[in-house]
Amino acid sequence: MRGLSRWTAAALLCAALTSGAGAETLATVEQWGLLGSWSVDCALPPGRDRGAVLTYEIGPDRRVMYRRNFGEAKDESEVVAASINAEGLLNLMVFFPSLHQAREFGLLLSKDGGLRAIYNRSERGDYTIRDGKYVKTGAPTPAQHRCD
Fold first, then answer.
1. DSSP H or E stretch at residue 22
2. 83 near 108, Cβ under 8 Å?
3. Better-scored residue on pLDDT, 6 or 44
4. Residue in 99, 16, 106 with CA at minimum distance from that of residue 65
5. What is d(CA 106, CA 120) in angstroms, rounded to the nearest whole number?
6. Cα distance between residue 34 and residue 106, in whole Å
7. Using one digit for the tens of pLDDT, what is the confidence trace for 38-83?
8. In angstroms, what CA-CA distances link 115 with 6, 18, 75, 139?
9. DSSP character for 59?
10. For the residues of 80-104, what is the DSSP string, one character each?
């Protein structure tokens, strides 16, 4: 596991230092249609008990930024890598400075435009979401909708 963590840290550093990687990440999220704000219920203000507003946007330095708004708590992280697999799943690697870790997650767009998290795992391989379900409860992840 230690080797995986070192590899992830090295990959993040390499991605952050390589302008081509940033341009490729930007092109991938634009092509897939991720940019904008998403929420389970856009009519509700963000809050821990009401849900978050998740925003993917291009920063002034052309990096893809991931902003989470939970109402009383907000943070900003960089999307350091993005790829689309053959089934249309968008795979993202996001570095969370507040958590001192990278997380990988996969997102899928439904035909009606909803966005669902299919997996979310730490750099050590610990899942919080697997196969579209929360690991702790087994409940399916809810669809998020574009708010803008």
1. helix 19-32
2. no
3. 44
4. 16
5. 7
6. 12
7. 999 999 999 877 789 999 999 988 899 999 999 999 999 999 999 9
8. 31, 29, 21, 16
9. -
10. EEEEE-TT-PEEEEEEETTTTEEEE
